[in-house]
Write a structure and sequence with these properties.
By secondary structure, the protein is an alpha+beta fold. Helix content is 25%, strand content 37%.
Amino acid sequence: MAILQTQPRGVPTQRDLRTEVQDFLTTFAKALAASDGEAIAALFEIPALVIAEDGVIALTATEQAAEFFIAAARQNQARGVVSTRADVIDLEKIGDKIMVATVRWPHLNADLHETAAEESDYTLRRDHTGALKIRSVLVRGIETPLPATPPRTKRPTH
């Protein structure tokens, strides 16, 4: 008779990685929405990079990371974005400490309708305590949803 091998209590299993990353990014989203610089800074391991079409920013201090992402959140708010969420599209585990998450951030207006979305890749790395930290962000760009198509009306047949 075979004996089932299980993880000891309190040890997360492999399938919990996606949930852990989702929870981490949800915390990031909440910190952005609240413009909580201290909470944003705590999610980064420095140095970190932000790579976008417009250029590359080397983040050399946690305060710089907080300022950059608060400014981005305020730009979105000025465009009428009142909320977002982190939708993890893909997650690739690279070794024991590194993973890359592709994340879609829908831009939601006051009616909570999606007006656009941004997609980015986040390279996450476990620090010396095992906590996830952001090491790089590759901004893939903003997509604008297609306008709603009015329903077709049936033509009379003769």
